[in-house]
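Weekly modeling sync, notes
Attendees: S.R. (lead), two postdocs, one rotation student

Agenda item 3: backlog of single-chain predictions. S.R. asked that every request posted to the team notebook include the full sequence so nobody has to chase files. The rotation student volunteered to paste the first one in as an example of the format we agreed on. Action items at the bottom.

Example entry:
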Amino acid sequence: MYKIAVLDEISDTGLNALIEHPDFVVDIHHNKSEQELIEVLKHYDGALLRSATTLSAPIIENSSLKVIARAGVGVDNIDIDASTKKGVIVINAPDGNTISATEHTVAMILSLVRNIPQAHHDLQNDEWNRKKYQGLELQNKTLGIIGFGRIGQGVAKRLQSFGMKVLAYDPFLTNDKAQGLEVINATVEDIRDKADVITVHTPLTDKTRGMINADFFKQAKDNLLIVNVARGGIIVEADLINALDENEIRGAALDVFEIEPPLHQPIIHHPKIVVTPHLGASTVEAQEKVAISVAEEVIEIFTQQNVTHAINAPVMTQKITKEAAPFIEVAELAGKVATILFNEGPSKILLKYNGELALDDTSLLTRTIVMHILKNQLMENVNIINALYLLNEQHVVYQIEKNKDADHFTNYLEITLENDNNKVTIGATVLKSYGPRIVKINSYPVDFKPEAHNLYIEHIDQPGVIGKTGKVLGEFNINIGSMQLGRHDKGGQAIMTLTVDSEVNEDVITALKSIEGFIQVKNIEL
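Predicted structure, as returned to the notebook:
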């Protein structure tokens, strides 16, 4: 049974899939303090939450959680670094509230240009102020959208129907995509200088925090209307109030705030600001959709190992892992062999993907390789979620090279581990109908399929080496399954790889090392 803790108010309809599933136990733990959550989550496999609860590093580090599910888009109330280091998958529901947030943005813009909240308030107080609340038309105005993902694109589509020209900024927006969506690919500075209405749809990051500030307002149009239904903190509230007071811009509409709830704060009482209490995702449909989405994915993760909307892990589904299975196997094999032959902590890792592998997303393979490299050196619980994080903690530099040219193999991966004293390179491929193969060890070409028990020997190429090796192994009653030789020049340095039928102990290694011309003998136990 998997135990799931629900930490915030989440739609009952959305939780039904978990509640009714025979493999899950669902408990409600609302309104808990940090210390209470530290104690509670020691006993749960998963946690579901919205924005009201914050999962800090101490909570996550002391928990037994394997999955944290945010019923919504933003995950700034979850310590992602702590989750990743702990090996906890963090998922969200990026599609569930798209329509809700899109429509709320449009509603805020319309409320702003037509002064609807203020006029409503006055009329309820028996004040008939038609002249006071003369509005603006959106037709022929310029809309600037900062952050052009699903919500930004949805807002653009709706307001284009109002006759607005759209400038869009997003670091991943190409000119071709902008042209297809009939918007202009712009910079933030272009939007600041030219837009009549600006709406922001970016996550809150170190880069976006405070990006709309005093300097921004000073250089914007004096009739600018600005809207934020994304995340509090993107707009500096003190600078916004000052810009409105100094008539540097015309008005603003905010659904999100630097501090929530912003009760008794001047930002919610300003006459030129329309405010709502974080309602962007608050529709019946959106709450059901995000809850259903995360509940179903939690079930998929625990029962099928399918991961689709993880913040800190590659996409993994049965289809993807089935197609990638041979390559994951060869990545695991090459990573293990490289680590055993290197036998110390690397300061640098170089990964090469050639041929078919270079055309695909290799993040799952990279994490698999790194995981096995770290498992040999770290006592911590390394998995594909925290592998890259822990690698960074060890100050290990890793580099990835991709080459679509197949060269000798239709698919090929190569791992190089190095530090100041040592360097090991392993090349591997998946041969159709034959499976994973090691095809390169350092500079030597080989065709080696490791088994459970293997030997790697560096030696001088000279007559009698194979016979002497067989004699020593025979004396210890160890049968040879296969043998591969690799060399560059006659009489020079060479390598030998063997698979054997039983475990090789230190006495065997010592006996092999005593053979004349043997430079190095390594036991490769897989």
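Discussion: group reviewed the output briefly. Residues 28 and 461 are 70 Å apart (CA to CA).
Action items: rotation student to repeat for the remaining queue; S.R. to check formatting next week.
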